[in-house]
């Protein structure tokens, strides 16, 4: 049976790694992100390896536009088997709470909390009706402890995402729908490279495994959580952190 995965923020970083991993497993892949050109570029690369992939350009914070995209997905594709919410922004790095701009705080919460919530709302009715489905939300170690880079806004948003994951998992477990979160530490992604630059690798010594996580390693964990191999796992926030929180 063909399976369909929707990946938000799917044209870069962890989302892009997920697109490649799920495509290799035979999934039909839908990429939802604001950047249409990047969506198309990734889809063409996936087509070249024989995968079925489609891109939808949408601002994930826009509830009206997002609803329209998911209606289009419902009309033109099989039911969504997996939703991977990998969109996210850091906000103002290394900024004290007293100096944090209101509009940036609002943008962080809209992107990191409300957008995943809207996406979950879009797919859960059909998953509940079918009695199956899996959602994985990409949180962060900042969902389990304070962020050393993003400050209060990023930390609050990722704590909220973990809480939302747990609450929804309890609600939808009786319907056969599983909802989990992953909580990566530092990962080699464009966002972290923009923040740290060449200093990113120097942070490796803070991790017991003595290296920075590769985005593919997070994607592998996400795939496992989404797959039937994790059929009795729901409501968890799994660290992918090289042993840091241990």
Automatic annotation (TrEMBL):
<dbReference type="InterPro" id="IPR002347">
    <property type="entry name" value="SDR_fam"/>
</dbReference>
<comment type="similarity">
    <text>Belongs to the short-chain dehydrogenases/reductases (SDR) family.</text>
</comment>
<dbReference type="InterPro" id="IPR020904">
    <property type="entry name" value="Sc_DH/Rdtase_CS"/>
</dbReference>
<dbReference type="InterPro" id="IPR036291">
    <property type="entry name" value="NAD(P)-bd_dom_sf"/>
</dbReference>
<dbReference type="Pfam" id="PF13561">
    <property type="entry name" value="adh_short_C2"/>
</dbReference>
<protein>
    <submittedName>
        <fullName>NAD(P)-dependent dehydrogenase, short-chain alcohol dehydrogenase family</fullName>
    </submittedName>
</protein>
<keyword id="KW-0560">Oxidoreductase</keyword>
<dbReference type="GO" id="GO:0016616">
    <property type="term" value="F:oxidoreductase activity, acting on the CH-OH group of donors, NAD or NADP as acceptor"/>
</dbReference>
